């Protein structure tokens, strides 16, 4: 395994973890743009644009683009988050050049007005679908209250109003500002010819402009207080809290992630045994979500609305007792699970490609997998206590969704 890096004159960075013994390869274009980078009036434009990238280029129809991905046997897709948009494919080594060509060409879409109107309807349907998901309704409302005027409060899909009001020229202007050479990373992994890939990517992307887009990483004022929503369409009770946590570039992210997992990972966690195994709740979890500059913990549970106060009480009890109850055995078992998951992912070029692209987008550096594994192994109980004292999981936003009376 060898790491390679090359930066084009326009700022586009190409990264690769080359493995001559691999049986597959992966390529992904990562753009540092997401809901966090939108204005309130353009909320949802990043995700909308992700859809439009698959609608074809000036000389390549949507049907031809999809057919050619199928012909090379690619497992390709895309995603949009609050902070990035990614277009990727996992393929056999012999079709890496075809994959790079297709991804590179689709990164300069036609953005036709007629496609825009068609896709607007698709996204409005997607928004409506998520409005039927009680967790998603509660989470979006809690996030809006938690971050307030900060753009991390934006919904990735946007709202019915923002998508309905959006114009094709709004999207084109956003694309021109954010989809630039100096805001894009190409990550590669697996069996491939790096020098040949660099030459090909430069021929495809070397003419992209540099726009120097920015992002404010400072911690905003957060805290949405305590609120309760009522909806006649729901029959269960839903509870969610948000608390402050370290950012993705903070070394405290390792113990912070472990604290969240000890409290509420899907199995063998404090919340699992206190809520699910006892039959008190139907769902219970906690997680750590790091962002560019800061992060948050969230805790979620659902169950019988009549028992929601009891569920909340148990969550508070387990949360408040967490740091005193954690033992070395708890930490050792968790580290073993985390290292196993990281090692298994490291055997797949697609996982390596995603890890490489994400980390570079946030940190502008590569962290070798073996180095990260050693860092995980080095987390101690004192680290957990120190991070817990700094970020104690104390909710600053608490939300409920319950049936209307």
Q: Any overview of this molecule?
A:
The chain has 405 residues and is of the alpha+beta class. The chain has 15 helices and 13 strands. The chain has a six-stranded mixed β-sheet, sandwiched between helices. It has a five-stranded mixed β-sheet with strand order 9-13-10-12-11, sandwiched between helices. A two-stranded antiparallel sheet has the order 4-5. Strand 11 and strand 12 form a beta hairpin. Helix 10 (270-276) packs antiparallel against helix 11 and helix 12 (328-346) packs antiparallel against helix 14. The longest helix has 19 residues, at 328-346. It is globular, with a radius of gyration of 22 Å.
Cα shape: globular
* Proportion in helices: 40-55%
Please compute the radius of gyration using only Cα atoms: 22 Å
Q: What is the count of β-strands?
A: 13
Mean pLDDT: 96
Largest sheet: 6 strands, mixed
**Helix and strand succession?**
EEEHEEHEEHHHHHEHEEHHEEHHHHHE
Number of helices: 15
Widest sheet, order of strands: 1-2-8-3-7-6
Low-confidence stretches: none
Distance between the termini: 61 Å
Strand residue content:
15-25%
